[in-house]
Write a structure and sequence with these properties.
By secondary structure, the chain is of the alpha/beta class. The protein has one domain: P-loop containing nucleotide triphosphate hydrolases (Rossmann fold, 3-Layer(aba) Sandwich), CATH 3.40.50. Helices cover 56% and strands 12% of the residues. It has seven helices and five strands, in the order βαβααβαβααβα. The two termini are 17 Å apart.
Length: 167
């Protein structure tokens, strides 16, 4: 039987991929970033948003997230993946880690132009993060702030915490 996946959720720029890679190594699990899988299978996310629209992108995202959560690995979800009701249901079978980040810290992490929903930069991020935060918090088993500590430290502490809970 495959172990339940560890799902990393949170706003854009919170460090889901950075923490996820390191966490997977600590736990000796496979790591997958669903945005990277989508890009490999369907093309770059900004291109998808521009050519097929957000609705079609979300349907693709839903299918990829569902498939990857079944693997039992460490899975970093795109910031908006939790908006899908079926994805939220899938997350009930996972350990869900919410990564949060302050506005000040995320401003340095956002890579201009690569995130299709950030049309107004930090103002868009602030609005989207505030809208989604209740959903994120409702799904989270563990909450970690990534604003001011190295991702390596965060991943090591999170791995220790998750291993302790599993005992």
């Amino acid at each position: 039987m495959t172990a339940a996946a560890i799902a990393l959720i949170g706003p854009m720029g919170a460090g889901k991929t950075s923490v996820g890679r390191r966490l997977a190594k600590h736990l000796d699990r496979r790591f997958v970033d669903t945005d990277a899988v989508i890009a490999a299978e369907h093309g770059p996310v900004p291109h998808l948003f521009a050519t097929v629209g957000e609705g079609a992108f979300r349907a693709i995202e839903r299918a990829v997230v569902h498939r990857e959560l079944l693997t039992g690995g460490v899975v970093a979800l795109g910031g908006g993946a939790v908006l899908d009701e079926a994805t939220r249901a899938d997350l009930a079978d996972c350990t869900v880690v919410l990564l949060l980040v302050s506005e000040e810290a995320v401003a340095a992490r956002l890579d201009g132009g690569k995130r299709p929903l950030l049309t107004d930069g930090i103002a868009s991020w602030r609005r989207i993060a505030a809208e989604r935060e209740p959903v994120y918090r409702g799904l989270a088993d563990v909450v970690v702030d990534t604003s001011r500590r190295p991702m390596t430290t965060i991943a090591a502490e999170l791995a220790a915490q998750l291993q302790e809970v599993a005992r």
